[in-house]
Design goal:
By secondary structure, this protein is of the alpha+beta class. The chain is 44% helix and 16% strand. It folds into two domains: 161 residues, Regulatory protein AraC (Jelly Rolls), CATH 2.60.120.280; 111 residues, Orthogonal Bundle (Arc Repressor Mutant, subunit A), CATH 1.10.10. Strands 2-9-4-7-10-11 form a six-stranded antiparallel beta sheet, with helices on one face. Helix 1 crosses helix 3 and helix 5 crosses helix 6. The protein starts with 6 loop residues before the first strand and ends with a helix.
Length: 290
């Protein structure tokens, strides 16, 4: 079976600009599902739609669009695909030293620099921030030269002063700095992505990593700050959230379609992660969307 390591993505700034600003219409960002990394910091705005995001070892579900900040060389894949039903996606990419290595040492840049340090673990912003940034990012994208740069710094500043965000990879996370870990751990990530609906044993996954089970368990916990079982359960629960929100399946069918083979264990795990039952989640989600 063929497995894919995260692809290195080479990014060039827009002509006449020190950073890259891209706009993709629905389903146009065809490479978004590819597991990849790059030295550029990336700010991604998804207008409308819902889907799964995987940034580092975090797998989560978003609705009504998304706004995330992804640090340098932090592996990530897909926010949008043919099932997301988003209106558009905007991507801003810039190297940490895109205006020189010393710029972040200036006192005026202290808060932005602190935010960029946090982005090394991935950040997702709340709904109010997401809505407020849509117009500003669109205006920035349509601007040119110095005006575009100034609007970009205004966006970074507003994001740096809000408390309405969540760190996606809390605790230690080494994946972004170790190339050899990138290649090994992402064989594992891609295998889970392709086989989460099946039963995956520790013997099987440790063999994929060419390690003994005890060594693999220690290694995976060090890299991701979670056990392999927690990681797989998180992936399955995230998939179940998407099914509960978007598909007219019974909760029993959602359980098995998400890779769980025991309904009681699915309910228990769902409550541990989401703090409510699957039926309660679906009821509340449908109420909010009405």
């Amino acid at each position: 079976m063929k497995h894919h390591s995260p692809a290195f993505e080479a990014i060039n700034p827009n002509i006449g600009s020190s950073f890259t600003s891209l706009k993709f219409q629905r389903n146009e960002n065809i490479k978004s599902h590819v597991w990849h990394y790059h030295p550029e910091i990336e700010l991604i705005l998804v207008k409308g739609g819902s889907g799964k995001r995987q940034i580092g070892s975090n797998i989560s579900y978003f609705t009504e669009g998304d706004l995330v900040l992804i640090g340098s060389n932090l592996p990530h894949c897909g926010l949008t695909n043919e099932n997301t039903n988003n209106d558009y996606e905007m991507v801003i990419q810039f190297k940490p030293d895109f205006l020189g290595e010393k710029i972040w040492e200036n006192p005026e840049m202290k808060k932005i620099h602190a935010m960029l340090e946090k982005s090394k673990s991935g950040m997702v912003f709340g709904d109010d921030v997401k809505r407020a940034m849509r117009k500003k990012i669109s205006q920035m994208h349509q601007s040119e030269s110095l005006e575009k740069l100034l609007k970009f710094f205004e966006i970074l500043h507003e994001l740096s002063v809000t408390d309405d965000y969540r760190i996606l990879n809390a605790g230690k996370y080494y994946l972004q700095t170790q190339v050899e870990d990138n290649e090994r751990i992402n064989h594992i990530f891609n295998y889970v992505k392709d086989h989460f609906k099946e039963q995956i044993t520790l013997d099987e996954i440790a063999g994929l990593a060419n390690m003994k089970v005890p060594s693999f368990c220690r290694y995976f916990k060090k890299i991701t700050n979670k056990t392999f079982t927690q990681f797989v359960n998180e992936y399955r629960i995230t998939h179940s959230l998407k099914l509960l929100a978007e598909k007219p399946l019974s909760i029993t069918d959602v359980c098995f379609e998400s890779g769980f083979n025991n309904f009681s264990y699915f309910n228990k795990t769902f409550k541990e992660y989401i703090k409510k039952s699957p039926s309660q989640y679906r009821k509340e989600f449908n109420y909010v969307m009405e």
